[in-house]
Amino acid sequence: MLKTISVLVDNKAGVLARVTNLFSRRGYNIDSLAVGTADRTDVSRITVIVDCDDRILDQIVHQLEKLVNVRTVKVLSDISNVTRELVLIKVKAPASVRNDIIQIAEVFRGRIIDISTETLTIEITGEEHKTTALMDMLKVYEILEVARTGKVALDRGMEYISYKDEE
Amino acid sequence: MNGAKFLVKLLEEHDVDTVFGYPGGTVLPVFKALYASKKIRNIRTSHEQGAAHAADGYARTSGKTGVCIATSGPGATNLVTGIANAYMDSVPVVFITANVPLSLIGTDSFQEVDITGITMSVTKHSFMVKSTEELALCVHEAFKIAESGRKGPVLIDIPKDILVSNVPNKFMSAQSKLKNLNAALPDVSQEVLLSASRLIDESKRPLILAGGGIKESNASESILALAKQINAPVCSSLMAVGEFPYSNELYVGNPGVYGNPTANSALEKCDLIIAIGTRFSNRTAIDKFVKDGSCKIVHIDTDRAEIKKIIEPDCYIVGDAKNTVSRLIELVKPHEKWFDGSVKNEERDDILEAVHEMFGDDAYIVTDVGMHQMWVAHGYPFEKRGRFITSGGLGTMGFGLGAAIGIQIAHPDKPVILITGDGGFLMDCNELATLKRENLPIITIVVNNGQLGMIKTIMNKARSSKLTSIKGAPRFSSLARAFNIKGYRVKTKSEFLKYAAEVNEKRIPAVFDLIRR
Q1: CATH number for B216
Q2: Could you tell me whether strands A119-126 and A81-92 are parallel, antiparallel, or unpaired per DSSP bridges?
Q3: Would you write out chain A's pLDDT as a tens digit for each of its 167 residues?
Q4: Which of B5, B6, B20, B48 is catalytic?
Q5: Residues of A in contact with B123 (CB under 8 A)
Q6: What residues contact A39, with CB distance under 8 A and at least 6 apart?
Q7: What is the DSSP letter of B281?
Q8: What is the 8-class DSSP label of residue A153?
């Protein structure tokens, strides 16, 4: 089952390598990984999605907690979180089909962020089924390139990670 | 003050009295500073791996953190087995390597390796010091990490230019901002203790399985008190051998793949395992006893990540072994005795008795890895705790002599006996030179059966001796003499006792080639 884990780490060189090394060394499969600074510049937030059962999830959490540069590990709620991924799709779009593609993008709330005589680049965010559906539609026109950010997620409502505990 | 001198000053602040190591190009400034130190003794070995095992053996028996220093490139990679060995057995050692100057890092320059990267998965943490400003902080944090919670090795890699450049005064004091590493252990709630005691009360045939974790917590006496209260046989993983007196009637030995038959028979019959400070290594081979659900498990460990890693317990307690067990004793009801076997009735080589007779309860018994290690683990009559030193988790052949050196340095007045195999001794006999140079009265007994015994038990099915014979091995007694150390070729207990008495009286090192073919 897919589980979303938020890992707050020190924003230092080599920390991401330590985290990913732990996953590969212990044989945990990463489904998606996204990294960026959090609300404080000295902290990075790693959002990692793993396909595993509850026992492995328990292991991942406690193994991660042993890493010196890991501050907090939290498994997000399965039912009450918001997950987003940003996808850029470059599609072949000569003038003859350009309008069709723009219309499709609009249906999916996608935005056109680049245009050339032969191509269109669409930006779309959302949950996976939405981006997959858009890509299925665009396949007809030949997708030239796709770039994904990896998923980021937060729990809904008042459920959040605070730094209070550590200071 | 340059970085190297400051590093040595930091080591002195951490109460380091001995370092083990080997010099080389980039690390020379550190050795220069070490030789000038009046507080730190520097033991140079024949090989960096020997130094790593020596620091490990020193740490296991002194209660202090070991320190081992090597140069960049091959010096650093030669440490890796020793680092992994310390990691698997949770031994606190700070490894310090020098590296090429910062400007050359990443350019594949001469004797450059990425040792922080290489050791990432076999250390608790690895530091690369990128400026003189970071040096103090890295050293303080390295000791803190190595010594806190479940202990283990930490590596600090220092580029040469940091060792030779001046450290401004303002960088000399540093405050660690590390999260409180010991805070990971919350108090054990009465509720969870009660659920554990309920499982114990309900069981008819409880058994205690103790592991290496009990050493750190000094829990063996409390565990024996619990065992007495509930009449449970006590067995120890390889890492906990020697923690319980061999003469204690409840001690049944070391279970597992190469285990004592008595311990295995107790495990087979029990209906509850109280596992304390053990991580259910596959060598303990406990799964086959619990898979069918006929046996329940209570798991007590300080490391939460060990819970449910291998086995899903019916109840677990994250806490200090001694503390938890002492509180459990107050809750559990007395049980009838259910197991009768005694490990003392098992067959054993008479040389073990002879060693005990000659050197007494206080002797440190070190082993290498192989069949001789199992013989010692199963049959040596340990009475005092902490006297059995072995490579448990990693199973490192070539561990023995280095470790024995570290132990003898930590305990100059105690007998240190290395019982090794002919295979293992061929891997580390280069350290006889260190023994001679430092005049360490270590007694080495090479159990010489002319083969790699443990491999042979695996290979027997294939009926091949190509892989297992040690043809071409030297006469170990003659080898010792080449190092100017006494060497004896012996077959019987009485021969051994005769020569051992001589060398023991003179407190000089000796190698016994004990023929067992």
Answers
A1: 3.40.50.1220
A2: antiparallel
A3: 899 999 999 999 899 999 999 999 999 999 999 999 988 999 999 999 999 999 999 999 999 999 999 999 999 998 899 999 999 999 999 999 999 999 999 999 999 999 999 999 999 998 888 999 999 999 999 999 999 999 999 999 988 888 755 54
A4: B48
A5: none
A6: none
A7: -
A8: E
Which among B88, B119, B120 is the top mutation candidate for probing chain A, defined by the most A β-carbons within 10 Å of its own β-carbon? B120
Q: Do B178 and A55 touch (CB under 8 A)?
A: no
Given CA atoms B432, B436, B9, B57 in this order, what sign does their dihedral have? Answer: positive
Residues of A in contact with B307 (CB under 8 A): 58, 62
Instruction: Quickly tell me which residue has 């008595």 as its tokens.
Output: B262
Q: What is the pTM of this model?
A: 0.94
Is B6 one of the catalytic residues?
A: no
Residues of chain B contacting residue A18, judged by C-beta atoms under 8 Å apart = 120
Residues of B in contact with A66 (CB under 8 A): 124, 303, 305
What gap in Å lies between CA A44 and CA A41, rounded to an integer?
Answer: 7
Residue where the block lists tokens 């608790």: B124
What ranges in B97-159 are assigned the alpha helix state H?
115-118, 132-147
- The verdict on B227 and B132 lying in the same domain is no
Q: Can you name the residues that pair with B451 across neighbouring β-strands?
A: B469
Q: Does B177 reside within a domain?
A: no
Cβ-based burial of B234 (10 A; exposed 0-12, middle 13-18, buried ≥19): buried
| Residue of B111, B344, B384, B436 with catalytic role | B111
Q: Is B501's Cβ below 8 Å from some Cβ in A?
A: no
**Structural domain includes residue B339:** no
Instruction: Write out pLDDT tens, residues B465-478.
Output: 666 777 788 999 99
The per-residue pLDDT for B81 is 98
The radius of gyration computed from the CA coordinates of chain A, to the nearest angstrom, equals 19
pLDDT in tens, B143-195: 999 999 999 999 999 999 999 999 999 999 887 777 666 555 678 999 999 99
Q: Which residue has the tokens 């407190």?
A: B507
In this complex, is the C-beta atom of A62 within 8 Å of any C-beta atom belonging to chain B?
Answer: yes
Q: Judge if B15 and B104 occupy the same domain.
A: yes
Domain range for B396: 350-515
B34 within some domain: yes
| Nearest residue of chain B to residue A163 (CA atoms) | B179
CB B120 within 8 A of CB A17: yes
